[in-house]
Request: fold
Amino acid sequence: MLIDTHCHLDFEWFDEDREAVVARALAAGVTRIIVPAIDLAGCTAVLQLAEQFETVYAAVGVHPNSSADWQDNWISNLHELAQHEKVVAVGEIGLDYYRDHSPKAVQQRALRQQLALAADLELPVILHNREANEDIICLLTESPLAGKGRPGVLHSFAADWPTAQAALAMGYYLGFTGPVTYKKADDLRQIVAQVPLERILVETDAPFLAPQQYRGKRNEPAYVQYVAERIAAIRGLTAADFAQQSSANAQCLFARMS
Reply:
């Protein structure tokens, strides 16, 4: 059993064969797929997928690259959307200083308010961090989620070890994707080797970041098995044992997921 804790199944890359993608995931042993939204329109789309597919769960939030037009009243919209029984997190939210789609100050305002929303709803967060290590750790430290037992996950982790340590110290999980399988990703694998086993999640971030076996092609939830297999090898575990552990981790963090 595996859980893909981050997949953008609502994106247009899956429009032609979405049902087949879900079927292939099930055939590969993927029993749950969490689909995070990136904007308000996406929130509606991911909820529709959660209703369509028994194995799909949703997260609602506004991605930093979608935050340029952020309005404070969007929090009310997100609060209402989060009442859906298959919403398991607030996300995908965070900071992205690599792309220039939204001013840093606006990204930070959106993140602060969505962190507060998650605390109010008692939901974990799914965090995007790209070239914003210092600021995101600072905002997490200051947020109402600070001190919570299982506040969320830094998804598709690609930052340095000090950032990992800071997040882990606050109770966050780290999600790992296809790059952990890449030939030159030794630094990332060194981090994977040090993270407490009970804090590791596996994800695809599909349609992006396909594992080495499919690099350059569209990623999909079935391929999370290759991420899991590589991490199992790094940790000296059997694939089955690690799959069981990572799935237990996911169910512990995303407590609403049945």
Q: What stands out?
A: The chain has a mean pLDDT of 97.
